[in-house]
Design goal:
Length: 379
């Protein structure tokens, strides 16, 4: 078992009608002047914006607004937010949305103190401080509501990098599962796949971690149960809540404690969505993760076989990946990169765009040929 430190400073406020507490929660942290960061407008149509801003107003909190964060959020949008935050001299950033709004808010919070935000993503500059980040989550997927990661795309360089900083932990995150009753099925499903993928990024590096393995198998199975239920009954609050909690646990330090994550599947998917921004993160992972499992099984067959048996009731890894793919098909997800519009000729360029420093993973130091092979298997 690996040594580990588990520290997570985020205050998580979970449940029905918790959006109405956002004003008092933020007020209690001493913030009075925010930048509200949001996406394309779903929070207006489902009433979350009204509920949140009524609470801010009644707590005497002022705010400016940055709209238009897109899925696979961009450096340019974050820089627009940095300029706005500086102009308004805000003392905190509030994201209302999914991972894209949250990650943009985190980048803005650090970016106001940096000359060149992208250098932090290139890891040539270290983040030394950031404004406090607050979150109202509307899509359970990334775990960004309770972790220290933020992912951003540099469009012209076709780079999508994840960055970890202890300043990226949100100060308070509000997870009201009722905000997710308005999600289209595809978003619910993509979020579930992302959460499963986070658990699996850690799981396969485990050897003798019985407690963590059992915990993670339960998480994976409970994500499948909740998602199956939501496919039939999208308005089922209990399943929304169960999926939301599982997705938070998947990447807030708990599912991965005792292990060192691998995250090569994430590296590959980030590259695919840097080249093809229309590919949703969860959709890309649903294709790449089973292929990665097939390719990597020989590195430690015992854990892979255990995953097949305990998560998918399968007698072999081959059967386990087949059952995973048929689950994804039942959910209407793609199982091949070509279904997502990816051109096979781009595979060498996509693989080459991952620098050697991002290819050393827990399970294997990946050569360019390994990356190409996994992308080809996924295609
Ligand atoms: O933009 P709006 O109109 O809000 O619509 C969004 C968006 O189109 C919609 N949506 C969100 N909540 C909704 C809703 N529609 C109806 N009702 C609601 N309640 O869903 C669409 C997708 O939203 P987005 O935030 O892009 O999705 P997600 O949460 O999956 O975030 C994906 C981004 O996070 C990164 C991904 O790479 C990707 O860039 N990740 C961030 C991580 C982190 N910070 O820890 C880890 C992950 O592995 C991941 O890489
Ligand atoms: Zn992910």
């Amino acid at each position: 078992m690996e040594n580990f430190i588990l520290e997570n400073p985020t205050r998580l406020v979970f449940g029905r009608n918790t959006i109405e507490t956002v004003g008092s929660e933020i007020g209690a942290k001493g913030c009075r002047n925010l930048l509200l960061v949001a996406g394309g407008g779903s929070i207006r149509s489902n009433g979350v914006y009204e509920r949140a801003t009524a609470s801010l107003a009644s707590a005497g909190i002022q705010w400016g607004e940055l709209w238009g964060v897109q899925p696979n959020p961009t450096l340019d949008k974050a820089l627009e937010g940095v300029a706005e935050a500086r102009k308004r001299k805000v003392d905190g950033v509030l994201a209302i949305g999914g991972g894209s709004a949250i990650d943009t808010a985190k980048a803005i919070a650090a970016g106001v103190f940096l000359e060149d935000l992208w250098q932090a993503y290139e890891e040539t500059v270290k983040i030394e401080c950031a404004l406090p980040v607050f979150v109202i989550l509307t899509l359970s997927a990334t775990g960004s509501e309770m972790n220290h990661f933020a992912v951003l795309t540099h469009q012209t360089e076709r780079k999508k990098w994840g960055l970890g900083s202890r300043f990226f932990y949100p100060t308070v995150s509000i997870v009201d599962p009722s905000a997710q009753l308005s999600l289209p099925w595809e978003q619910t499903r993509n979020g579930a796949i992302d959460a499963m993928s986070h658990v699996m990024e850690f799981y396969f590096s485990a050897r003798d971690q019985e407690t963590a393995l059992a915990l993670d198998e339960s998480l994976l199975r409970s994500i499948v149960v909740a998602t199956d239920r939501l496919q039939q009954q999208p308005q089922d609050y209990a399943s929304r809540a169960n999926l939301a909690w599982a997705a938070t646990l998947a990447l807030n330090g708990v599912s991965g404690a005792t292990m060192v994550g691998d995250f090569m599947t994430h590296g590959l998917e980030h590259t695919v969505s840097a080249f093809y921004p229309q590919v949703a993160h969860g959709a890309g992972l649903g294709v790449i993760h089973p292929a990665w499992i097939e390719y990597m099984e020989p590195t430690y067959p015992a854990t892979f076989a255990r995953w097949a048996r305990n998560v998918w009731d399968a007698d072999s890894v081959k059967e386990g990946t087949a059952r995973m793919r048929s689950c994804l098909q039942r959910w209407g997800a793609a199982t091949r990169l070509r279904e997502l519009g990816v051109d096979r000729e781009q595979i060498p360029a996509m693989a080459a765009s991952i620098p050697p420093s991002r290819r050393k993973t827990k399970l294997k130091e990946m050569a360019l040929a390994d990356l190409e092979a996994i992308l080809n298997l996924s295609w």
